Amino acid sequence: MKSALFTRMLSIIFGLLLAACGGGEKGQTADSTATDTATEASNEEAPEETPKEEVYTVKGQVVRLPETGKNDLTVDHEEIPDFMEAMRMSLTLADSTEAKDLVVGDKISFEMVKGESGFLMRKIEKLPADTELKLPAMPEKK
Ligand SMILES: [Cu+2]
To answer: Distance, CA 141 to ligand 1 centroid (Å)?
Structure first.
């Protein structure tokens, strides 16, 4: 008899718990609906984003100067945290006159700009020749 009472009490407690849970879920559903609506509204308000350019200040060393009539400078550059490992790459000069005073082997800092159509470099500044750079170890490929 005692156990029957206990069982009934348990079932009452369970019933209460279920009711409580049900109430909670209803509340959550209402909340998430409200959030969805808010998100949609803010999306509509946001103007069409023009793709932002990402700018990184990078140090590197000149590997190859632009050929006549071309506009690309090849550099070994240091790691760019969270973006690019140290590597050799060719970049398009935003302003070709920026390369006119450079020679192969110059250590430079520059801004790397990731735009819609690839990478640009600009604001090239020469660094002292004894600047220590962590450049990529380039396996000789021939
Ligand atoms: Cu790179």
So the answer is: 18
